[in-house]
Hints:
Blueprint: E1 7-8, H1 17-28, E2 34-36, H2 37-43, H3 49-61, E3 65-68, E4 72-75, E5 84-85
Antiparallel strand pairs: 1-5, 2-4, 3-4
Amino acid sequence: MPIPMRIIPNDHGVLNLPAYAILDNMLNVPERDYRTFEEMCSFFPKDEPSTVRNALTELKDEKYVIIIHGNTYAVNKLRIPNMKLR
């Protein structure tokens, strides 16, 4: 069985580990490309809500995600062409 392709951000070292984990999850699990803060916390139950909030803020500041409808975060699809498939 072939290994599924993954979208990998090219700029390693820019994001901290929690932000990278959230981005990887949002990019590679199609039903999670947009979620609320609360839903993100449920996907990462071992992390404090402040860790998830800080990671989402970092992703927003680096323009990997955008905010839609107040507290819902979505992948910035304009950034995907600059990433690589592995």
